[in-house]
Amino acid sequence: MTIEDLRKDMVAAMKAKDKPRKEAISSLISAVKKVAIDAGCREDIPADMIDRVILKEQKTAKEQIDTCPAERTELKAEYQFRYDVISEYAPKLMEADEVKAYITERFADLLESKQKGPVMKAVMAELKGKADGKVINSVVGELCKP
């Protein structure tokens, strides 16, 4: 995913007069730009940074849906639409069985200690943005059981 892809899709939404979609994509672009400026790479934004920002925005949108009162149906529908648009751009995350295979293959030496902390530290450094942290945590917890 590149920032140019997002911009093209935003322009397409503007031409189609699809205001909610345009606003959702625009908020993604703004979030990516903000993170890029903070990281000091304003011009050449790496794809993995864009993916991380999209995943963070997706998580935020999901939290908005979950915390929205049930009687606020219009607001909940708006949040759901935004979540669906962001999900279109989100990278596919690894499943629990893929994470387990990856960890057992790459971190067999760390798993022998049965200490969750060092394993989590090493695994999260490599799988950040590729798998959900909760999935990683549960897999590592399962693998480190005595």
Mean pLDDT: 87
In DSSP terms (H or I, runs of 4 or more residues), the helix count works out at 8
- Helix-strand string: HHHHHHHH
Number of strands: 0
Report the uncertain regions.
none
Computed over alpha carbons, the radius of gyration is 18 Å
Q: How much of the residues is beta strand, in percent?
A: under 5%
Main sheet characteristics: none
Helix content: over 70%
**Class of secondary structure makeup:** mainly alpha
Overall form: globular
Tell me about this structure.
The protein has 146 residues and is mostly helical. Helix content is 75%, strand content 0%. It contains 8 helices and no strands. It has helices at residues 3-15, 19-39, 47-67, 73-89, 96-106, 108-111, 116-127, 133-143. Helix 7 packs antiparallel against helix 8. The longest helix has 21 residues, at 19-39. The protein starts with a helix and ends with a helix. It holds the Pfam family YqeY. It comes from Candidatus Limivivens merdigallinarum. GO terms for molecular function: carbon-nitrogen ligase activity, with glutamine as amido-N-donor. This is GatB/YqeY domain-containing protein.
What's the helix and strand layout?
Elements (H helix, E strand, L loop, with lengths): L2 H13 L3 H21 L7 H21 L5 H17 L6 H11 L1 H4 L4 H12 L5 H11 L3
GO molecular function: carbon-nitrogen ligase activity, with glutamine as amido-N-donor
Protein name: GatB/YqeY domain-containing protein
Pfam families: YqeY
